[in-house]
Every structure is written in C-alpha cells, then in structure tokens.
Amino acid sequence: MIRVLAAKNDAPFSSAQLNLLSRHLPSQVINAAGRYKRWQDAQAFLWGRYLLAEGLQYFGLEKHMLTDIQYTTYNRPYLPVPLDFNISHSGDYIVCAFTDNKAGIDIEAIRAVDINDFSSCFSANELSAINDAPDIYHEFFRCWTIKEAVIKADGRGLSLPLETISVSEQNVIEGTTWFIHKIDIARGYQAHLATNEAPGQGISIDWVSLPMG
Questions:
Q1: Which end is more exposed in the chain, N or C (fewer Cβ atoms within 10 Å of the end residue's Cβ)?
Q2: Contacts of 33 (CB under 8 A, 6+ apart)
Q3: 51: Cβ–Cβ under 8 A, 6 or more apart, which residues?
C-alpha cells in the first residue's frame, strides 16, 4: 500500500500550536527547527516530521523513531525499518509518502521560471513539448516533478542526471521500473510520486491537521 499524507503550511503557528507540537514531537526535532531563519522553512521542517510521525503510527511504529533517522551516502534519509518514506514541500503545502517498497515524491508551486536555465535537464523532445504547451509553466513543472520524484525514489539524487529520466508513466533505471503517479494536492501546484510498486496497488491521500490537545 502507498499512503501520502498532506498538510497546509500557509500561516505561522500560534504559541498554542507550538506547545501542542512540543508534546507530540521529540525535543530534538523541535530544537532542530531553530536552525531555519524563515518561519516557512522552520514550519515545513516541523510539518514534515509531524507527517512522518503520523505515518509511523499508522503503520504500527513508534513516533520516537523520528530520532533514529539515518542518511545514505547520497544523503537520502531513511529509517532502519521495512518502511520507506519521502518528504517534499513547496509554497503552502507539505507531502510525505510511505510505502514498504521505495518511493519518491515531489511537489512544486507553479510559477514563472526561465526554461533556458533548465535546458540541460530535458531531452529535445521534452523541451519542445514544454515550449509548445498552452501553459508552459504548468507543463514545465509537470515534467520537473516527475523527474525529481524518480531521482528521489532511486536515492542517488542529482548524481542520476535528470536528462536521463523520461517524462513518461514508467522509467526503467538499471533494471528497476519506476511507476509514475500524479498526486492532486491543490490548484497551482504539480506533484508526482514515483514508486517501484505497480499502479494497481492503490494510493491513499489523507490530509493532516495539528492535534487539538
């Protein structure tokens, strides 16, 4: 089963909300948020850890495992349990994907960018499709989030060149087939999930709010 948790991050936490979070997240996590200067970044970090804690509990694991996060040589976070997770945030939204296989998720707010700055990340056909699209930025971020989801699932980050990943429903990389799933979060955003589970497994998308007490 693939589960995606999502949350909105569009306003600063109140002191009451921060107090609630401090009771639901390890103190190390709360303290780590202090390294961010912008409230949006600090809260994105806290939301990501809160979504991770919620997912762990859903799958029968303890949320104190948040302090057990480890990193691969490519700096991909993981936990020493048979459950994979991946977090992404952009603009007002945070998403976290869970699977007992492998998953990568990417969300991006659709905005104006200079397509030429990213030309090396796309094939000639992909660039042509982007530039010919009725909404070039919508198409750009559709393609971008697919590629980002695949490299995050693969786990090697940008050491796997983006131009080698095709904008299609499947990507085969060194014998592993990555299936692409579109994730609908909000208007003005593109989000995709890449997983080595076949599409028939189903995806659950659930919205999470802060606890009431």
A1: C
A2: 42, 43, 45, 46
A3: 5, 6, 7, 87, 94, 95, 96, 208
**Domain-located, residue 213:** no
Q: Is the pTM of this model over 0.90?
A: yes
Biggest CA pair distance of the chain: 53
Q: How many Cβ atoms sit within 10 Å of the Cβ of residue 112?
A: 8
Residue 178 maps to a domain: yes
Per-residue pLDDT averaged across 102-109, rounded?
Answer: 97
- Nearest Cα to Cα of residue 65 among 52, 76, 46, 47: 52
Indicate whether 145 belongs to any domain.
yes
**Contact, 4 vs 193, CB < 8 A?**
yes
Q: Which phi and psi angles does 73 have, rounded to 5°?
A: -65, -20
Per-residue pLDDT tens for 127-183?
Answer: 999 999 999 999 999 999 999 999 999 998 878 888 889 898 888 888 899 999 999
Please calculate the CA angle 79-206-47 and round it to the nearest 5 degrees: 55
Residues 103, 109, 110, 112: is their CA dihedral positive or negative? negative
Sheet of 176-182, strands arranged across: 103-109, 189-195, 176-182, 170-173
Residue position matching structure tokens 């869970």 = 98
Structural domain includes residue 148: yes
